[in-house]
Design brief:
Elements: H1 2-7, H2 20-40, E1 45-50, H3 54-70, E2 73-74, E3 83-88, H4 93-112, E4 117-122, H5 128-137, E5 143-145, H6 153-163, E6 167-169, E7 190-194, E8 196-197, H7 208-212, E9 216-217, H8 220-232, E10 237-241, H9 258-266, E11 273-277, H10 286-294, E12 301-303, H11 311-317, H12 323-336, E13 341-348, H13 355-368, E14 372-377, H14 395-417, E15 424-432, E16 439-443, E17 449-453, E18 462-470, E19 474-479
Parallel strand pairs: 1-2, 1-3, 3-4, 4-5, 5-6, 7-10, 10-11, 12-13, 13-14, 17-19
Antiparallel strand pairs: 8-9, 15-16, 15-18, 16-17, 18-19
Length: 480
């Protein structure tokens, strides 16, 4: 990167081709930051706050990489940072309210710090009414952009320094994927890797296709090249990311399947573990099950959102599978991979859900016996078909059903987790334990957490651990 930046002549117009155009603006923004540092008499700091999913977390690493290149130092002190970035989520409307609340607090901090800039990006910014509200009531925000043009971050920062006014750059959709921009990983030993962007499913409760755009897959060569570079830099585990990884490859000039991509990634020497999410049940193929069955690197964990156990409700959700087809898929997966850990997402109280529909969901939970489940009370999302459906379920009924579901999920999860007691398993150590510094914390291939005696030197290594005591959702163990 330093060599590339050295060759760039800022007296010339910006290149039109990417990523060279962004390298040009990285160098330009770097000069603006340097001048701001001289005026402040100190280094400038930046704080990124990430709301939402792992796709957003990966986007934030890309933002952090650009901020580092242009001269900002990372800080967690949001109130005193010189550049505050909120990478927003909009899956639920209360997520929007959290952002507005945090912005209100920052307004006072900005008045105290003449160097402070505030940027908002991510899914929430793709909603026109949000941008209008920000323009009207939050004029102190400096930079607003969405999910499709994150790669332009340096260019937008340079524009803000030059204009000294609010900069707004929102794209409705894109087919553009820009490779080879800097990133700053949160972990040295593991990393998320985007294999595709957007979603074509249009589940009736979900805002994601409207804010993330249509599906577009990255070229497999670019994915392989990125992972090879990560492994050379010490990464042993990758998480392949997409709204629906099972439909990977359909938009490519030369289509390949997700299973074929996994087969190629498995060949990368030095890579120990492969994870992926999220899998839509309607697209999970027999080919993928077969690849997972024979793989030495794909983790024995599959997140397979069911959302509801009622075929009637699934149809209203536009999920495009039935209870019966879902259970048949689970049967095939467990038959091929007996030690697989299955996790899921479940929505309670979808419009029109009856007690019978809810009992169908409970039936699926009992039959599948998930290792864990993310359970959600249905949240009406403005702009989705479900928001205007009749028969919205009363809040007190939804709460009572949710509590019953949660109790059942937790009981089964504890029973499923306990079957590994006494076995020796490989644990990828992720951190020193937050509550007891004499312990380290890591994950099994099936994603269960394990705590055992150790020190920070073990972080990023795979350790054989005997699982001595199951604590319901995690284990206490000892290194062998």
């Amino acid at each position: 990167m330093d060599v590339l930046l050295e060759k760039i002549d800022l007296s010339q117009p910006a290149p039109t081709e990417e990523p060279m155009r962004q390298y040009y603006f990285i160098k330009k923004a770097k000069e603006y930051v340097k001048k701001a540092e001289e005026a402040a008499g100190r280094p400038l700091t930046a704080c990124i706050t990430t709301f939402g999913c792992q796709m957003n977390a990966r986007d934030s690493e890309k933002l952090a990489g650009i901020l580092e290149q242009i001269g900002y130092q990372e800080t967690e002190d949001e109130e005193h940072a010189d550049f505050v970035i909120f990478n927003t989520c909009t899956v639920r409307e209360n997520a929007n309210m959290r952002v507005y609340g945090r912005l209100g607090q920052l307004n006072h901090a900005k008045k105290q710090n003449p160097h402070m800039m505030i940027a908002l990006c991510g899914c929430m910014m793709q909603e026109p009414e949000v941008v209008e509200k920000l323009k009207k009531s939050y004029r102190f925000v400096d930079l607003i952009f969405g999910t499709h043009n994150i790669y332009k971050f340096a260019e937008l920062i340079a524009t803000r320094f030059e204009s000294e006014r609010m900069v707004i750059d929102i794209w409705k959709d894109t087919d553009k994927i820009v490779e080879d921009l800097p990133t700053e990983r949160k972990y040295s030993f593991k990393s998320g890797v985007n294999i595709m962007f957007g979603c074509n499913n249009f589940c009736s409760y979900c805002i994601v296709p409207y804010v993330r755009g249509r599906e577009r897959s990255r070229d497999p060569k670019d994915i392989i090249r990125e992972i090879e570079k990560l492994v050379a830099d010490g990464v042993v585990e990758v998480m392949l990311l997409g709204q629906n990884v099972n439909s990977y490859g359909k938009t490519l000039e030369h289509p390949i399947s997700f299973a074929q991509l996994l087969t190629e990634i498995e060949k990368i020497e030095g890579l120990e573990r492969i994870r992926f999410m999220t899998s839509h049940p309607k697209d999970l193929s027999d080919e993928l099950i077969e690849v997972m069955k024979h793989s030495k690197k794909i983790c024995r964990h599959l997140h397979l959102p069911v959302q509801s156990g009622s075929s009637r409700i699934l149809q209203k959700m536009n999920r495009r599978y039935t209870k019966e087809s879902y259970l048949e898929l689970v049967r095939k997966i467990k038959e091929a991979i007996p030690d697989i850990s299955l996790t899921t997402d479940i929505i309670v109280g979808f419009p029109g859900e009856t007690e019978e529909d809810f009992e169908e969901t409970m039936d699926v939970v009992r039959k599948v016996r998930y290792d864990s489940a993310f359970t959600f009370i249905y949240s009406k999302r403005t702009g989705t078909p479900a928001a205007i459906m009749e028969d919205q379920v009363p809040e007190e009924i939804v709460k009572e059903r949710f509590d019953r579901l949660l109790a059942e999920v937790q009981k089964i999860s504890a029973e499923v987790c306990a079957i590994h007691s006494g076995t020796v398993q490989k644990v990828l150590v992720e951190s020193v334990n937050a509550h007891d510094p004499s312990l380290v914390t890591g994950r099994l291939s099936n994603n269960i957490l394990v705590h055992f005696p150790g020190n920070e030197e073990l972080i990023g290594t795979l350790v054989d651990v005997r699982l001595n005591e199951c604590k319901g959702f995690y284990y206490i163990g000892e290194a062998i």
